[in-house]
Amino acid sequence: MKSVKFLVLAASATLAACSQPVTDESSDAARVVNVYSARHYASDDAIYAAFTEQTGIAVNVVAAGGDQLIERVRADGERSPADVIITVDAARLHRAEQAGLFAETDFSDLTSTVPANLIDPQGYWVSMAKRARVIAYSNTRVQPGEIETYEDLADPRWRGRICVRESGNAYNQSLLASIVARSGEEAAQAWAQGIVDNMARAPQGGDITQIQGIAAGECDVAIVNHYYYALMVNSDEPARQAAAAAVTLFFPNQETSGAHINVSGAGIAANAPHPDEARALIDFFFTDEAQRMFAELSNEIPVNADASWDNPTLDAMLPFVEDSRNVSELGDHNETAQRIFDRVGWQ
Amino acid sequence: MQAAARSLYRQLPGRALGLAILAAAICAAPVIAVAWIALTGETGDYLRHLAGTRLATYLTTSAVVALIAATGAGVIGTGLGWLIARTAFFGRKTLAWVLILPLAVPAYVAAYAWLDLSHAGGPLHAMTGGLFPTIRGSWGSGLMFALVLYPYVYLLARDTFAGQSADAYNAARTLGAGPFTAFWRTSLPMARPAIAAGLALVVMESLADYGTVSHLGAPTLSIGLIRAWSGAGSLVDAARLSLVLVLIAIFIFGLERAQRSRARSVNAAGRHKPAPRHPLHGAVALAALAACLIPLVLGMVIPLGRLAWLALRTETASGLAAASLHSLTLAGSTALIAAGLGLATAYALRSRTAIATLAARAAGLGYAVPGAVAAVGVIALLSGTQALIDPAWRQLTGDVFPILLTGTGAALVFAYLSRFAAAAISPAETALARVTPSLDGAARTLGARRGRRVWRIHWPLIAAGVTSAGLLVFVEVLKELPATMILRPFNYDTLAIIAHNFATDERLGEAALPSLLIPLVALLPMIFVARYLSRQDH
């Protein structure tokens, strides 16, 4: 038993030494903002560092999946230390809003910078960067002009020619949600069924895997987020560059509804202990400096069109016509989209 | 004599039983919280929708993945365990601990690397003109699990083979059986409980995995429940689906127990001299070496080699030193506690009282629930506790109880223990099975007091098993992702988190170095343990 006792004692001593205080409420002088973020990009660390340097406000971060963050903030309730909640994907923002996690905020002073369709109509959250879900096609096996819309991909002539990832992926869900919003559930299901019928292979891997599938000749078109293509173009790895060079990135629905976009968004937590600092950080996301970092470090599309940045790969994709529907609608239709995926057997 | 031994056991486990009940409470509480969420939540029509669409697919895929994983890990783990424990060949001593290392490779990291190598357009695909199959789907996932989880079986089987007496095997040989037949008829049946314990862990872990099966496109039940949560936004339905996993776990542990009770006490050590190792020479020795190297190469060298190759061409991520320290701290403290609790539970089990048995079974439950759901259970539990304290605290201070329980390292260790303590109980129990009642009786007759008996007689016999148990938990925590993400304190990255964040963005180059660091960090304590164990041999 001695050994058992020793193990337990040693372990609890280690544990006591490694538990840290959650926040430093004790000192009034040090201003902090606590961020719960579903983002994990290099751009964010750079933005927080710049924010701290300019304002003296320290940034504490917990990063996890959107649904997990929502659950943690919800369970902590009024004792939650969260000040700013950030998620990628409009549907997660919607869900956080439904769970009552956001404080209603007056974002009206941002309307000169941010298009109205990227701000939650109820004022719970605001988008700070965009990502487009678009189409990549083979330079050799697909002629320019052969595809114009997402809807085209459901046509039987693409049978056995489409690569796309699994339907658990939030970006696929939001794309389908946008079609539900535009054309209704029935048409959206017919579209999803068409894509499943046209798949070249069972879904696997991420968006880059799909583009590599085209380059290797396994499929001719793929549905991907624009920044994965940018990652490949800027990659250090010759094989990835070559795969990117074998495809054309195409922004669909330019004559109709516009290309589907999804967003990263932020809102102030309902029980934020530091609401002023939270607002300061959110405002900082829309400065030229922060918007430039979204564009340069994570290849996202800034929401502030007046910002300037240095990213030729991204510039080559811009400008394009984007879906002008308010992104909050993507959340309204997310569950419907998910059920359609289940019904048509999109793995 | 028998009666004396029995009464000894009655007094021995007093404190152990207390710890065992504590372990059971830690492990089962989050599961009970999840069950509470499942049973008290609102009922929508999502489960009916699921039953009409994909539920059957989820169940069959889970079964196929688990079956492939168990078969692969069983064959590799048992075979290598026997080779290392029972034969002598060049490199055996080093391989004895190197063979454990694939366990430190997260299955999702192996999956990222293998899919990257073998998908259409990947190097293996290109080099073989498309002949090399893409590692994907149910069989691909099962294969990944087999390659990185076989050490569970290997560790337990090896220790058991090493402790087996030579009598039965020699008798079989004397009666004209070849080495293989003798192994099949005598050594293997005696090791069956240990192998079953290892396989139970392999199956549980395959079923609870999310990262691997989602990347390789194998829609298992855990994919289904995460989708219920993230797609339908219904934590309640996700909790209900995870109860199905808990039931499967109860069933599997039941099977494992049945194995164990059928084979009780055949593993007695100390009465007989362990069998000497068979020296292997020439081609046979080479074949043994190759047999050991193949799973190592497939499970570790190739995936990590690919990552190393990518890492060398990519700028290194920052913050890796701090993340390594965090990983080590969390894994180290959890492993120590888990080993202690596992051992205590094993001791308590010797009393064969109903309450000890119940405690041990309850402790196994946490292992069945996917990390994300277990973390939700932990959160629900801790925040519920905080809410309970609130009224009294408000009277005292006028405010709600501060956020002490959730969002600290303690919450994380709690979640880890609830997930992985089961991994420590089985090995400790297997190890303790070698300490027979007669050993204790003899020591007692010679006047040894209880503490001295435990330290001088039990510990040398069980040290290997208990440290192995701690080690299993250690690497589990190093690799753990979902619970770490959701429960960690501010600004607290671990290696697994950094690796995962880059890997989900398909930035394998950046993910490479942190992924490599996970087994490297695991290496330090493993070398220590390996040296310690080989000292024990003399």
Average residue-wise pLDDT of chain B: 84
The gross shape of chain B turns out to be: globular
**Helix-residue proportion of chain B:** over 70%
- Tell me the structural class of chain A: alpha/beta
* Sheet with the most strands, sense and barrel status of chain A: 9 strands, mixed
| Weakly predicted, low-confidence segments of chain B | 264-270
Relative helix content of chain A: 40-55%
Mean pLDDT level of chain A: 90
Q: What is the CA-based Rg of chain A, rounded? A: 22 Å
Describe this entry's structure for a reader.
The complex is a heterodimer of chains A (347) and B (538). Chain A is α/β, with parallel strands linked by helices. Helix content of chain A is 42%, strand content 15%. In chain A, strands 1, 2, 3, 4, 5, 6, 7, 8 and 9 form a nine-stranded mixed β-sheet that branches. Chain B has 538 residues and is mainly α. Chain B has helices at residues 2-11, 14-40, 46-52, 55-86, 92-98, 107-118, 123-127, 137-163, 167-174, 179-208, 211-216, 221-230, 235-262, 282-312, 320-350, 354-365, 371-397, 409-432, 437-445, 450-479, 482-487, 495-504, 508-537; strands at residues 87-88, 278-279. Chain B has a two-stranded parallel sheet. In chain B, helix 2 (14-40) packs across helix 15 (320-350), helix 2 crosses helix 16 (354-365) and helix 20 packs antiparallel against helix 23 (508-537). Mean pLDDT of chain B is 84; it is low at 264-270. The interface between A and B is large, with 74 and 89 residues.
